[in-house]
């Protein structure tokens, strides 16, 4: 038709491709889907913040004795009650929580460091070193941990106290003993990761370009094996806190004037019928801490597992 123009069909622009999320943001997205892990982070943050900064809000001394307030229940003057000497349990729990958490995280660091080193050496070895290190790992796994803990503490407690002082010596001894007896699961996990990753294509490509074994471990294998190690390390924190509480409950941990959560439980065992609050609050703190760390470990396992898509 004269004078008519043909309208060209409209061409829609292709939608813009969404930029891929960074590994950190993707891990956080996966982690926050785990509601219990997210709630556990909040609970653990409250506990850690309470023991670190609670002394600024509740500045009572842990050794103030008031015989007129013996074995009192929770009140406005003593929110967590008092012990058999009239000492404020809230102040003692704040002080003791710092030690219990410090032991847990320090022992976790020792166990993770030893486990990563042993597992990496075994995973990269192709000769006799791998069987020897795994034999050593199996040997430590077969040892009864609690009797061995008691034996080592009995043998070396006095000598360490003489060198580092009472509190410092006991702290170093407990951290070294617990960390030295908890590295085996981390070592086996790291070894399994290294055995898998060292045969991957990107490692073979780096090796073909002349990369040394140390470079392969530092730049390619170890960073890709850290996900399961972080999960295992989170579990080791709770295991170390329980171990320290067990030692203190048996009277072999810190001395009586240093009120760790386990020591408070030990002191409360003879007064459960008249002062149950004395054991309830430190026991509840240990329970909440261990439960929170375990749920955080579950959330990290799901977030760091690339096979899980949700």
Automatic annotation (TrEMBL):
It is found in: Cell membrane. Residues 97-297 form the ABC transmembrane type-1 domain. Gene3D superfamilies: MetI-like. The chain crosses the membrane at residues 36-58, 99-121, 133-156, 162-181, 225-254, 274-297. This is Peptide/nickel transport system permease protein. Pfam families: BPD_transp_1 (PF00528), OppC_N (PF12911). It is a multi-pass membrane protein. The lineage of its organism: Bacteria, Pseudomonadati, Pseudomonadota, Alphaproteobacteria, Hyphomicrobiales. It comes from the Bacteria. GO terms for cellular component: plasma membrane. It comes from Methylobacterium pseudosasicola.
